[in-house]
Amino acid sequence: MKSQDVDEGATLPDKYEDPFSGTVGLASIFERLRAYLGARADAQDIEILSFSLHHLFCSIDILFQRALTQLTASTSQVREPQKDLRALYSGWVYLRQITCLLERIEALCQLLNGAATSILTALNATSSMAKIADAQTVDLGNEQNWYHSAAQEQWGQVAAIITECLSNWLECHESHLSFTTRFANLAAIIPALTHTDSAFDLLLENVCAIFGDVLQDFQAIALGDDEATATLLLDLMQKADQLLYQINILLGALHELIKQYVARVEML
């Protein structure tokens, strides 16, 4: 899952149609989460978790299908971007957009981790109460069967929508011009550039794990299975921590890049 160098005039994938199409599938997963957690977790924490995941998905979609693609396209159109004022300005704009998206994703990951921690605490506090409810196993079984039946009817479509979005992100990422190639002339000035390509690779890898594995696994959890729920929430938090780590690497390099762009514009 590595960015490839793009020759001048190369054709980039034109798949950016609806940036939020995958959220239709996510809505089904969020409904499952709300139904499972019910009154056992604070409604606000559940909403914050859903909000964070929804906007994380949208922000990643824009980052890989629009912002990074536009940066690559702007580079392939100019032979010496470091000497062209319009190209310098265009590059600065795209770098600012990418930086803002990463900062937004950073904030969303922090919100996500906070909400997930609160939900885990609530599940732990109510687990003993849930065990006392053995007398309601018949009702629980009926409710569980209803949710499984409803999920089976739409899960194939939901999984297909999300999987297509993840595939589009991967395809776009593979077509992007690597940062080490795009900014080779600045490598000596900004050593952090050598880590940007691997950071984007790992960022996308963990995002795909969140939406392709962790969240979709929530569909298979039986009502009342707190252990499985806690495991998935912890996995979700671990992936979010990985995103924060990679974003920290990327922001360090991007802030230095933007400073260099400003300095070069002032010199022209």
Give the low-pLDDT segments: 1-16
Overall mean pLDDT stands at: 81
Total strands: the figure is: 0
Q: How much helix is in the residues? A: over 70%
Along the chain, the helix and strand elements come as HHHHHHH
Strand content: under 5%
* Biggest sheet descriptor: none
- What is the total number of structural domains? 1
Radius of gyration, in Å, reads 22 Å
Spatial gap, N to C terminus: 38 Å
Using the alpha-carbon principal axes, give the shape. elongated
Structural class: mainly alpha
SS element count, helices: 7
List keywords for this structure.
268 residues, 7 helices, 76% helix
Helices and strands in order, then pairings?
Blueprint: H1 23-37, H2 43-76, H3 85-132, H4 137-175, H5 179-182, H6 196-217, H7 226-267
Helix pairs in contact: 1-2, 1-4, 2-3, 2-4, 3-7, 4-6, 6-7
Overview of the molecule:
It is a single chain. This protein has 268 residues and is mainly alpha-helical. It has one domain. Helices cover 76% and strands 0% of the residues. It has 7 helices and no strands. The chain has helices spanning 23-37, 43-76, 85-132, 137-175, 179-182, 196-217, 226-267. The protein is elongated, with a radius of gyration of 22 Å. It starts with 22 loop residues before the first helix and ends with a helix.
Brief synopsis:
The chain is mostly helical and 268 residues long. It has helices at 23-37, 43-76, 85-132, 137-175, 179-182, 196-217, 226-267.
